[in-house]
Amino acid sequence: MYFNLRRVLSLFLLFIPLLGFAHDVSSADQEILRNGGLWAYIQVGAKHMLTGYDHLLFLVGVIFFLNTFKDILKFITVFTIGHCITLIGATYASITANEHLVDAVIALSVLYKGFENLGGFTKLKLRSPNLLLMVGLFGLIHGFGLATRLQSFDMGTEQFLAKILCFNLGVEVGQVLALIPIVFILTLSRRLKQFPAFYQAVNWYLVLAGTGLFFYQLFGYFNAH
Predict the structure, then answer these.
(1) Is the entire prediction scored with pTM above 0.90?
(2) Which of 84, 132, 194, 219 is deepest in the core (most CB within 10 A)?
């Protein structure tokens, strides 16, 4: 099987600046939330997921490993339940952590999924952890990352729970909008004879992107202290 690692590395270097700014919190978003009411939280939540490249890369890795729409729906549902629990619960209870450290763990989830898809555990003669359990666990971590972002906004005290729920709804809308083309493209790619090489290339990219994002977030953490 032919696999051009140099080409994947070039793509990695091209897109890593974009990945580093995944789901950034902007003053423009704060202004939208201040003036737009509950609908604004849905909008910003959707935007946050659509620009949350680390979240989407993890989902790409999950979907790549699955062959049927039923399995895709099952795993995405588990991931969604996980991130809803921590997004709503942590924000409502005002539980937060350093966003760089949380995002570093999220980056490791991207690395993990690419590594698993490439048969990394098998090559190390280790048994892979239960995938559904790991997707649920990573869903909790990704949700906590979303909670840290939401809590960086000035949400005020009025309709606090409603604002959290609307932001969460926006995240789910954004996730669905992102997944539609992702599932479509991956489904079509399986019909091509080049799919094995495409599979290798994308999952190596996940490994490289996860590694790059991990060190990027650690650099951000240590640079801030």
Answers:
(1) no
(2) 84
Please name the residue that has the structure tokens 């932001």: 167
Amino acid at 44: V
List Cα–Cα distances, 101 to 166, 186, 221, in angstroms. Answer: 26, 31, 7
Q: Whose structure tokens read 């909670």?
A: 147
Residue matched to tokens 């590594």: 115
Identity at 200, one-letter amino acid code: Q
- Report H helices in the chain: 5-20, 27-50, 53-64, 69-92, 99-117, 120-123, 131-150, 160-189, 195-223
**What interhelical angle do 53-64 and 69-92 show, nearest 10?**
150
Q: What is the pLDDT of residues 28-79, one digit of tens each?
A: 788 888 888 899 999 999 998 988 888 999 999 999 888 888 999 999 999 9
- Burial class from Cβ neighbours inside 10 Å (0-12, 13-18, 19+) for residue 137 reads middle
Q: What are phi and psi of 22, to 5 degrees?
A: -55, 135
- Total number of residues shown for the chain: 225
Q: Which amino acid is at 105?
A: V
